[in-house]
Amino acid sequence: MADLSAVRAEGLVKNFGDFRAVDGIDLDVRQGEIFGVLGPNGAGKTTMLRMLATLLPIDGGHAEIFGVDVRREPHRIRQLVGVTGQYASVDEDLTARENLWLFARLQGLASTRAKSIAGDLLERFDLQEAADRPLSQFSGGMRRRLDLASSLITRPPLIFLDEPTTGLDPRTRGQMWGTIRELVTDGSTILLTTQYLDEADQLADRIAVIDRGRKVAEDIPDALKTQVGDSTLQLRLADASDTALAADVVRRLLGEEPVLTPESGRMNIPLPDPDRAADVLIGLREAGLGISSVSVAKPTLDEVFLALTGHGAHESQARESQMEATR
Amino acid sequence: MTTTTTATPLGSRRVDPSAAVARTTSHPSFQETWVQTLAMAWRGLKKMRRKPEQFFDVLIQPLLFTAMFAFIFGGAISGSVSDYLPVLIPGILAQTAMTVCMATGVQLREDMDKGVFDRFKSLPIARIAPLAGPMIADLIRYGIASVLTVATGLAIGYRPGGGVLGCVGGVALTVVAGWSLAWIFTWLGTIARSAQSVQGISMMIMFPLTFLSNAFVPADTLPDWLEAFVKVNPVSHVVSAVRDLLNDGAVTGEVGWAVFGCAVVVAIFAPLAVRSYSRKM
Fold first, then answer.
1. Residue limits of the ABC transporter domain (chain A) (predicted)?
2. Domain segments of chain B: what residues?
3. Does B22 reach chain A within 8 Å, measured CB to CB?
4. Choosing a second label site near B79 at 20 to 30 A (CA), which of A161, A254, B50, B229?
């Protein structure tokens, strides 16, 4: 049992009309790990998760959760998976306590037991004070916490988190990360989707990068980052018309392809080694090209995408509007 | 291995996937389904208490329509208001039940568009529970509307021949009929694109069914072709059955037909509704 995968999916396919949202994705999530699915909006992350959670029919391929067939035994799958969606799926007309009580009752807990679990969860997620207030007065972060709490009532061994921190402020995001790590310490397995490389990097043991319904890479975070370069040198040229010249200098010195925004004279250069930043700056000085600003940053999702797919993340987002239209 | 199947509190011990898999069941049991349906009914009642404006149709229609129809049509149809009331009250009861039914479908559709339905779908619960739960809560609405209709009738001079028992029987039959017919609108709620379209389609069904029946006029005054339709209209049977109960206190063949008709409607539309609800996910 221990060597059984938490999630094993082969060739998952989902079509919306003639638009293929998920195009043959394979996944193998091991027990007890945090597996991150990284990709821009519209890449097919949520669709994939919804298929695995039995919320959408699987159009092609095969999926198993702890060895249970997702298509054939949806009721069993629902007992094994806790789902926390991108938008809080809690009842706006009930209070936090009532929400938890209802979900606990629905999952077969006796009324008093449901009450005590609701109380425990409210305390754990720091919601006691707001427990009996209407949800309309809840902040985004509080709703997310309640949503996550609702997924943990029966302590499912597998938890799906769909963009758990999108739209949260940095402090709340940090708290959410802490909670997610605790869940894994308790023995749960987590499959999470995110648009933030930084989040996947912080949390995930392994990351799959999804683009246009396909998996374009899968590795441990460090290996992925090395493919992109550990950090990026961000430059702004004093004279935007020098962009092409400056790009030549970079290619000659580093052998790397810079990401250019010629209109504003911006240039993002992947750095295999932060030490090489100085080489670029000296090279530009020698070529007589002035710089108006300079900084070194960690790689962004955009750069990971460029490195892995040859096109930027924002191009994939055009797919999203297409997907909305065909839904 | 009987009491350990419920969840353990957080952090008390490690999650054990193999034990979790071992205790899964492939289908909800009948008892689980019942408990889940009641939990959903509880949710429906909570929502009713928080949004009393939902009760407007239930409160206004019996009061307004009973008085209005009695005084406008009474003289023309039966010679006097008091002679018309025994014809009208059962008719209004049926009409009110239909209106409440329609609201059931529209509200279900609105509800299904909310985020919380995503959670209901992801939970290991019987697919019928989210549909049947609100309908159980709605029994209260049918009850209030029916009692209010009869009370309004009594206030303007209706003296049902069936007595208290007849009234109780009539109201009970109205509630049963309303609940059964509501499955049609619940099914519409699961197939329609939006709450507005449920409303539109329901109106198109409800108006012909209530007005092309014997609810407000005796069927034999109608042209032959219309009379033929009125006689097969299930609403007519419900109205006749309620009349028999209210006015004569008699459990006639019409009552049997009405109950049988209701059972047929539930047998057809409840599975259809559950199937289209399950497919949507």
1. 7-237
2. 29-279
3. no
4. B229
pLDDT grade, residue A229 (50/70/90)? Answer: low
Q: Is there a contact between A176 and A144 (Cβ–Cβ < 8 Å)?
A: yes
In Å, how far are B18, B123, B126 from A108, measured between CA atoms? 20, 11, 12
- In this predicted complex, what is the ipTM? 0.83
Q: What is the pLDDT of residues B74-85, one digit of tens each?
A: 888 888 888 899
Amino acid at A66: F
- What residues form DSSP beta bridges with A231? A271
Tell me if B124 sits within 8 A of A78, measured CB to CB. yes
Chains A–B, number of C-beta pairs less than 8 Å apart: 144
pLDDT single digits (tens) B140-165 = 888 989 999 999 999 998 899 888 99
Distance CA B136, CA B176 (A): 11
> What is the distance between the alpha carbons of residues A115 and A105, in angstroms, rounded to a whole number?
9
Point out the residue among B35, B50, B123 whose CB comes nearest to the CB of A93: B50
CATH of segment(s) A7-225: 3.40.50.300
End-to-end CA, chain B:
33
* Alpha-carbon span A33 to A192, nearest angstrom: 11
Q: Could you tell me where in chain A the CATH 3.30.70.100 domains are found?
A: 231-297
- Amino acid in the structure at residue B249: G
A-chain CB neighbours of B111 within 8 Å are none
- Picking from B4, B12, B21, B113 by the largest number of A CB atoms within 10 A of its own CB, the best residue to mutate is B21
Cα A214 to Cα A23, A42, A187, distances in angstroms: 5, 11, 29
Q: Tokens 């191009």 identify what position?
A: A315
Reduced to 3 states (helix: H, G, I; strand: E, B; else coil), residue A108 is: coil
C-alpha span between A61 and A71 (Å, rounded): 10
Token representation of residue A236? 């702004």
- CATH code for the domain defined by A231-297: 3.30.70.100
Count of CB atoms within 10 A of residue A318's CB? 10
